[in-house]
Design a protein that fits this description.
By secondary structure, this protein is an alpha/beta fold. It is built from eleven helices and eight strands. The longest helix has 15 residues. The two termini are 24 Å apart. Belongs to the maleate isomerase family.
Length: 250
């Protein structure tokens, strides 16, 4: 069996982070495991993070899945958490099934994961019942994300919306600010911390520091997506320096 895998991502056109953090994690994994990865993307148009643009963008996801299946990717990740969550409670299941069918119809069947579904599943893998959450979105969209996660049976005890409307600006947010943001939150009754509930907000460099600072497991949308991709490929979900979920303990 080949040790080479093609990683496909459906990303917003203005996303600048998932094509850096996912490759960074899987490249780091190559230092400790034999599998090798290449990275392939297709883009959906979106500049501002609002419900109207998110809905229009989601309508392009079938085209992106078809394009990526032309490249015969081994796994396909829908890399926009809030686009999925804005389409209604539980929508990640419908989206993943539909996009998987697109790849199958193209005679290039591939498992499909989504950042939205991956974050929910990652929290459940950690056994988290009550969480703290940081998101870059405006407050109404952040509340929608909170409602989506709570609908899946996980209580969001405390959350912070950074209220950055422009998606490029989200990608420019300095991850070094995140430990200070978390330090201002009441974490006394939470099991885990979602340091970035957004695939565009850079956070990977801050994860070890926040775990050390709080003594709690920390994950992000990107970390959860990487875990979902590796498990979909039936590979060991381990990445050095990427937090508890990818520590090898799960």
């Amino acid at each position: 069996m080949s040790n080479n895998y093609r990683i496909g991502q459906i990303v917003p056109s203005s996303n600048t982070t998932m094509e850096t953090e996912i490759p960074a994690m899987l490249t780091a994994r190559q230092l400790i495991r034999p599998e090798r990865f290449t990275f392939h993307s297709s883009r959906m148009r979106m500049k501002h993070v609002n419900k109207e643009e998110l809905a229009a963008m989601d309508a392009e996801s079938d085209r992106c899945a078809l394009e990526l299946s032309d490249a015969r990717v081994d796994v396909l990740g829908y890399a926009c958490l809030v686009a999925i969550m804005s389409m209604g409670l539980g929508y990640h299941r419908e989206s993943q099934a539909r996009l998987a069918q697109v790849t199958q119809n193209n005679n290039a069947a591939a498992p499909v994961v989504s950042s939205a579904g991956a974050l929910v599943n990652g929290l459940k893998v950690l056994g988290a019942k009550r969480i703290a959450l940081v998101a870059p979105y405006m407050k109404p969209l952040t509340q929608m994300v909170v409602d989506y996660i709570q609908h899946e049976g996980i209580e969001v005890k405390v959350w912070r919306a950074l209220e950055i409307a422009d998606n490029l600006e989200v990608g420019r947010h300095d991850p070094a600010r995140l430990p200070g943001i978390v330090a201002e939150m009441d974490l006394s009754d939470v099991d885990a911390i979602v340091l970035s509930a957004c695939v565009q907000m850079p956070s990977l460099p801050a994860v070890p520091a926040v775990e050390a600072q709080t003594g709690k497991p920390v994950l992000t949308a990107a970390i959860a997506t990487t875990y979902a991709m590796l498990t979909a490929l039936e590979l060991e979900p381990i990445v050095p320096g990427a937090g508890a979920l990818l520590s090898g303990a799960y």
